[in-house]
Amino acid sequence: MRRYLVARLAQTALVVFLSLSAVFLMVRLSGDPVTLFMPMDIQAKDVNEFRQRLGFNDPLGVQYARFIAGAARGDFGESLRYRRDALGLVLERLPATMLLAGTALALTFVVAVPLGVLSAVRRDGLFDHAGTVVTVLGQAVPGFWLGLMLIYVFAVQLRWLPTGGIGTPSHLVMPSIVLAAFYSARVARLTRSAVLDVLNEEYILTARAKGLAETRVIGKHTLRNSAIPIVTLAGLEAGQLLGGAVVTETIFAWPGLGRLTVQALLNRDFPVVLAAVSFTSIIYTLMNLVVDLLYGWLDPRVRRA
Amino acid sequence: MKAWLGLGLTLAAVLAAAFAPWLASHDPLSANFAAFLKPPGTPGHPLGTDQLGRDLLARVLHGARLALFIGACTVVITALVGGTLGLIAGFVERWPSTALMRLADVQLSFPFILLALTINAIVGLGLRNIIISLSAAGWVIYARVVRGEVLSVKQREFVHAAAALGMSRWRLLFRHILPNVAPSIIVVASLQFSQFIVAEAAISFLGFGVQPPTPAWGSMLSESRDFLYIAWWLAAFPGAALALTALGVNLVGDWLRDTLDPKLRV
């Protein structure tokens, strides 16, 4: 187990290092942001001075070394727009993103896992068919359109909920529903097929044959054994959500990480783009690691392998 | 039943795209300030008009053209690039394989939409660049799936038998391995198609990708936000077209997976 853990940690560190390098290369390839932030009537001498100060005149290798050394200390430089520490800006947005991600994820599991289990247990029944229609629709309807339609109905027409922003629990309703709609569809479909797989196993037949109550057969023998694919998907989705739901946050003017990333990309605010994208990729990679470690807990066979 | 619905919706989208100029009586770009923000059902404008008096039906139909074109180009490019790399990585199990899979790990450490968005912000706006961005972000899944399939097909007896009979490696790859891997490529491609269409719309919605006045569903939805209080139809119809197209393609993809490769989970 310890060797496995060490190997996985080393692998995670390598992926994080490589993705930081990839982010740096991508952002540097996109050109020089300096001229965009200068007034129209500026002298060439001043532009150069500004470049010098930000270090854009150094060779690419030097800039890369500086970036990696800084990133290791959590220093991504200063935002070109806000003149503040870039990582600080990212971390400032984190609570809002975590609140939205947590709510959406909780909503997803409360809705999707029972839906999937019931559909599988009552396979081909009315509930299963209705569930299939809902999940297929949920996967196809794009979140930003669902968001716009919800805003039209509940904010514009009925005036029950605010159109966007953050502050009260009512601000949280629509964005978390939009996020949960898409993810629940996936989780429900996966839960259904995972439970169906397990129900075909012989130990389920045994459990039933020895007269175990159906609630116990499903609740204990089936659910625990169908948990692995569900946990995998949940971990990946948590990672995606923590990286900030770029589109949903933008529609609902939710001041989280995703909206910060989009704005920084639009403004060519490179230090913030670097900080935000690197942060997202680290979170995402760590979530993958957590999922792998959870396997070992859920399935002792993995631990021995 | 689901398959027929999917085929029907997909066919409708393809026909709308193919015959857009003949189905719509207006030019999607021609403004008419005398008739702006007309509601659906206005004579001559069944779906109404937008803030510049452009016919919404014409714009939605031409949007289908753009969406399917982008989706098709991206699917073909990613399937060719990702499929080839996966084939090589699975067949030649030495350093290229490991290097490629590490690269895939790195790419998969970014959420798809964020990666495509960032690449698009870097390579620039416009139709060609959105196809490049989506392809650059989307090839990994093929490489992964195909490599896994090749690794398992290679262990099958008929491959060992062919190798024992002295068949050359290239012939082995193209005659015996590729045909067994092809169904997976088709299934992944069909399931990716709608993801690409929706991702393109999302990226254009955020202000990157395809720019106005080109009638892309994503940028139409983005513009509709300013008029949500007075003109619901500007948000409703392009989004419905997008959702129905995505639904149709998804259902076809599900059906293909169930018939060709039921074990595959994508």
Distance between the termini of chain B: 22 Å
Classify the oligomer.
Answer: heterodimer
Question: Can you count the beta strands of chain A?
Answer: 0
Distance between the termini of chain A: 9 Å
The Rg value of chain B, from CA coordinates, equals 22 Å
Counting structural domains of chain A, the number is: 2
Shape of chain A: flat
> Which word captures the global form of chain B?
elongated
Structural domains of chain B: how many: 1
Mean pLDDT of chain A: 83
Low-confidence stretches of chain B: none
Number of strands of chain B: 0
The name CATH uses for the topology of chain B is MetI-like fold
Commentary on this structure:
The complex is a heterodimer of chains A (305) and B (266). Chain A has 14 helices and no strands. Chain A has 305 residues and is an all-alpha fold. Chain A has two domains: 2-72, no CATH class; 92-304, MetI-like fold. The relative contact order of chain A is 0.14. With 266 residues, chain B is an all-alpha fold. Chain B has a single domain (2-20, 49-264), classed as MetI-like (MetI-like fold), CATH 1.10.3720.10. In chain B, 71% of the residues lie in helices and 0% in strands. Chain B starts with a helix and ends in a 6-residue tail after the last helix. In chain B, 52% of the residues are buried.
